[in-house]
Structure to design on (467 residues):
């Protein structure tokens, strides 16, 4: 492993984006950041601006209102970056998978690196998902390449 | 100046005791800070290499220039910060390691150089064309005017007591007359010094310009990648050399004996732990509260220290 790759895996700063979520997943993300789980021992930190972020933790089914902001947030994040879909809604739209007001999941807007399903996912599941995205633990699902290009016209 | 002198000067500035030495120890002390914070919050905390991994990752990332930002000032500010920190560290560590190499007035130069990182933060924030950066820069400007006054009263007390503006003669004075912190005016000046140190390092309760919860990092909000890394490195360098400065000017010089070196390290850790414990047990002050604290209370204590020093107390 190259040194810089190692640094990236040991230090991941996450930015939390609410894309029309019901707050359930957001509460669980905050739960994962409490001293009880102490994610700082893995080098994970919550940052408050996308410029400092390495990973976007996106919750919610992506409403039409939030799509433009989400793409701007993605573009404001410096490369290399990870996009992590947290919760059933971000994974596939959840119960909003075919409504008029949402885009039915994060994969329709941004290239997603890993999905963490659950309504809401437990904090352990979120940590496990982030660790899988970083390659710290072996994945449970076969890896798929995202072929579609980013639709960035905003 | 021949080629050997030149290469020695380069090694001196970049490796020991300049940039590399200060940065590595400073980053390790940043880990001490995070570990102590974690232990007090009953967590485990990050491993010792965490600050190095953070810096390596930031350096490997892309640096985004925000649209509409003043490119020259935005890119130049992190370098200004790190140059100021390196030069200030050089002055302090040359007094520590090579006592013969100082010059008259290096304490005054140090006061100016240690203000450079804050000025770089103001330039970078104002150049970033972000409202958060602009607000952060203006708050930082107000804070500089407040805590530099207090810092100067502390320095002035030392100058009056030792009757010298040279680092090495301040240390020599303490070797013959005892530590400055042992006198009444020196003790008051130490308190003032610790207050302004807390603000200079941008620690709670004085992290008003960065204010992560309301200004998302203030002047640093638009910095990514290498620019952010340079600001972080210069901040951790200051976290090393400012406590060293405090220990040197208030508790006296270090001699080349094991006991003296151990004592120096203990005093350094004591100053660091005081700073860290104040940081994690206090909430952020509002700007007006911090300004009135510095102008009406801390600076007044500093003035009292100066007056006492005039009377030789």
């Amino acid at each position: 492993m190259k040194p810089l790759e190692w640094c990236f895996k040991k230090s991941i700063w996450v930015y939390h984006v609410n894309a029309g979520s019901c707050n359930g997943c957001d509460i669980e993300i905050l739960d994962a950041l409490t001293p009880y789980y102490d994610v700082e021992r893995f080098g994970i930190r919550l940052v408050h601006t996308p410029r400092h972020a390495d990973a976007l933790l996106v919750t919610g089914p992506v409403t039409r209102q939030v799509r433009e902001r989400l793409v701007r947030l993605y573009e404001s994040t410096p490369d290399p970056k990870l996009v992590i879909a947290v919760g059933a809604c971000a994974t596939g739209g959840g119960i909003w998978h075919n409504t008029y007001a949402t885009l039915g999941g994060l994969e329709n807007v941004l290239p997603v690196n890993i999905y963490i399903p659950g309504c809401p996912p437990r904090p352990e599941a979120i940590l496990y998902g982030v660790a899988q995205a970083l390659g710290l633990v072996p994945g449970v699902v076969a890896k798929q390449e995202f072929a579609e290009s980013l639709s960035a016209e905003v | 100046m021949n080629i050997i002198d030149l290469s020695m000067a380069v090694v001196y500035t970049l490796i020991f005791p300049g940039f590399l030495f200060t940065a590595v120890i400073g980053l390790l002390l940043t880990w001490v800070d995070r570990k102590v914070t974690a232990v007090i919050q009953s967590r485990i905390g990050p491993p010792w290499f965490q600050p190095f991994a953070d810096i390596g990752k930031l350096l490997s990332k892309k640096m985004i220039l925000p649209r509409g930002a003043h490119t020259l000032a935005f890119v130049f500010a992190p370098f200004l910060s790190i140059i100021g920190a390196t030069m200030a560290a050089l002055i302090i560590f040359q007094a520590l390691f090579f006592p013969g190499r100082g010059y008259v007035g290096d304490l005054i130069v140090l006061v100016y150089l240690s203000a450079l990182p804050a000025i770089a933060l103001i330039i970078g924030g104002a150049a970033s064309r972000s409202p958060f950066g602009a607000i952060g820069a203006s708050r930082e400007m107000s804070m500089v005017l407040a805590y530099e006054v207090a810092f100067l009263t502390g320095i002035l007390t030392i100058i009056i007591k030792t009757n010298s503006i040279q680092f090495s003669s301040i240390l020599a004075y303490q070797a013959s007359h005892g530590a400055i912190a042992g006198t009444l005016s020196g003790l008051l000046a130490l308190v003032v010094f610790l207050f302004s140190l807390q603000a200079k390092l941008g620690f709670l309760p004085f992290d008003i310009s960065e204010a992560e919860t309301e200004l998302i990092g203030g002047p640093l909000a638009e910095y990514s990648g290498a620019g952010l890394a340079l600001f972080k490195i210069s901040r951790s360098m200051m976290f090393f050399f400012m406590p060293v400065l405090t220990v040197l000017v208030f508790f006296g010089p270090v001699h080349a004996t094991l006991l003296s070196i151990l004592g120096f390290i203990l005093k350094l850790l004591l100053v660091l732990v005081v700073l860290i414990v104040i940081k994690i047990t206090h909430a952020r002050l509002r700007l007006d509260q911090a300004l009135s604290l510095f102008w009406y209370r801390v600076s007044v204590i500093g003035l009292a220290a100066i007056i006492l020093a005039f009377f030789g107390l």
Notes: Chain B has one domain: 3-310.
